[in-house]
Amino acid sequence: MTKLPIQKRYYPLWWLLQGIAQLPFSILYFISDGLFFVLYFLVGYRKKVVFQNLQNAFPDKTKAEQRAIAQQFYRNLTDIILETIKLAAITPENLKERVKILNPEVIEAATTHGELVLALGGHQGNWEWAPSGGIFYLNCPIDVVYKPLSNSFFEFLSGGPERA
């Protein structure tokens, strides 16, 4: 057995997450629905911050509209958490189905002529999948700029700069 470069106290969590990564997407999204319920209704994870941000961003929206947006945010968050875990076991075919780069020839043409291309992406969809899926469309080096996580286990789990 290969020694994991993480503290032993994280081994059970590591094994659990590796098991979850093996599950099909249909089961992952079912688990995501349950995780949404736990985070939103039971734990209230960062709920004050989320609602304050929604009030600042959408002062004209009613409380009901802001609540609907918050619930959409939490559903998206739990989907992204489980999709990121799935990255540990996703097949290249599955990833290519889920990540699309439109007009890759534009990037190819620029890089072929020695130009540098800066592609920026917002937090739309799963931002963890974009660099990993981009390698299927682009025949050029891909560098990712990111802020390392403060928790060494989650930094290891995320793949850090080696993810792409």
TrEMBL record:
GO terms for molecular function: Kdo2-lipid IVA acyltransferase activity. The chain crosses the membrane at residues 20-43. Its EC number is 2.3.1.241. Keywords: Acyltransferase, Cell inner membrane, Cell membrane, Membrane, Transferase, Transmembrane, Transmembrane helix. The keyword Mitochondrion does not apply. Pfam families: Lip_A_acyltrans (PF03279). One of its GO terms (cellular component) is plasma membrane. Its main location: membrane. InterPro entries: LipA_acyltrans. It is found in: Cell inner membrane. One of its GO terms (biological process) is glycolipid biosynthetic process. PANTHER family: LIPID A BIOSYNTHESIS LAUROYL ACYLTRANSFERASE (PTHR30606), PHOSPHATIDYLINOSITOL MANNOSIDE ACYLTRANSFERASE (PTHR30606:SF10). This is Kdo(2)-lipid IV(A) lauroyltransferase.
